[in-house]
Amino acid sequence: MSTRPTRRRFLQGLGSCLASGSLGALLPQLALMPRAAAQSSGYRALVCIYLAGANDSFNWLVPRDSEAAGSRYDTYKSSRGGVYGSSNPNGLALAFSDLLEVTPVGQTIAYGLHPSSTDFTVSSGGNSQAHSGLRSLFAAGKAAFVCNAGPLLQPLTKAEYEAGAPRPAQLFSHNDQELLWHVGMGSTGEAVARYGWGGRVAKATAGGPLANGLSPTISVAGAARLLIGDAILPYQVSSGGVDLIDHYTPGSAGNNYTAARRALLDDLLNDAHAHRFQRGYAGIAQRSLGVGEALATLLDAADGSGNVTTLFPSGNQLGDQLKMVARMIKVSRTLGATRQVYYVRLGGWDMHSGLFDGGPVATSGHGALLTTLNQAIGAFWTALGEIGARSQVTSFTMSDFGRTLTGNGGGSDHAWGGNLLVFGDAVAGNRLYGSYPKLVVNSNDTAARDFSLSRGQYIPTTAIEQVAATLAKWMGVSDSGALAAMFPLLSNFSGSDLGFMG
Question: Which alpha helices (DSSP H) does 61-173 contain, by range?
């Protein structure tokens, strides 16, 4: 039977690459633009760690002042239905003794991190390597939390909310609220919202693709609105590297027809096509092949220059993605990149049930996800140290929304404001930014601006725009007019810089 490729199979393979591999990654190169000069010198990158499904972040960072009646911890425990245990299987609170104490600068009380946030060691092939967990990173001033953040159109009190004041559309909906986090504002009505805020930042600071065609926005987790900008679409890689067209790549082993296939493909792409669509499609394919193959060569170099030696935890899909980010940063800097935005993603956070699965708190239910996150972050931090990029890279989490303080019999439900993490050498860490809520169900404290609904769904006091604008300024968008154009609702809030970037 002939092994020569049919025209249909070739076109199917080309279409598949456009959808998910190196060819699709070159869609951003449809319009190559002059590089815009960054407003800050040197290399800088943002890494978004998206926690899909909505992280129950009020169990990630918890008040830990005392167990006395009326303490902040006691209020938390009461609002969450008591401490989870065999005698209270519907409780959602963590035990005081399980919390890892931290003492944020400027706070009048101590706080506790989820017990998953510990240092850890990874072993592989007889080698082992110790990594810092979130508690150590926070205490060392390398990590900070931004508290009670979420989408808003304007500052909002409970009374205003109940009176029907403007608020983001489709609150408590996963896909709608995820979209708002990606576009970086509380509304998708603005024309600028057709782009993600990461793409807008990349457009303002990187201008466009590198000379070799590599986009300044890169996803290791598939399509992401966050990374799309004006003439900028993300380059996609997998956690294993660049996806090339099978049996069309020069040097492919084990197939006698590889060279012939590639010669035919090059002949097809170099043809003087009469139709504009044909010429455009051929150009995309050529640039895609060039970028993909060059990138694969750098990443898979025999001397290991495109790899990192840091030991990442096995079976940790987020860790695998962040390892690829570290490798991409390493090779991108050799290509002359100055500004990049990366996207990784971990799902499973929509825990209407199973917040506690009956096993050890640190490694079951919600704890299992937080352990995955903690170990991925810890290994990534070590890898950034290995490649000398800790001061050049700032990473942060985003999630659909916070979750209800009250339980439903085994988990928590959709809410609004929540806490997010920022880490990197450039972060002013060991601090809480924004206002950590009192964790009171149905709170209506105007003086403290502490407002929650009937199940403890907190109205945010920090807007998405403020978080994104603070990161954008660190990337080099320092002009107030540029920030206003990038985030049209920013002027509705007091302060465009939350201060967590040093």
Answer: 72-79, 134-139, 158-162
Q: pTM for the full model? A: 0.90
Distance of CA 8 to the CA centre of its chain: 38
Q: Indicate the length of the chain as a whole number.
A: 502
1 is a domain residue? no
Residue 223, judged by CB atoms within 10 A of its CB (0-12, 13-18, 19+), counts as middle
Residue 95's H or E segment, with its range, is none
Domain membership of residue 116 (yes or no) is yes
> Per residue in 101-138, pLDDT tens?
999 999 999 999 999 999 999 999 999 999 999 999 99
CB 299 within 8 A of CB 331: yes
189 is a domain residue: yes
Domain that holds residue 94: 7-245+256-492
Domains: count for the chain: 1
Return d(Cα 338, Cα 187) in angstroms, integer.
30
pLDDT per position as a tens digit, 9-52: 444 444 334 333 444 333 333 222 223 333 446 999 999 999 99
In a domain, 351, yes or no: yes
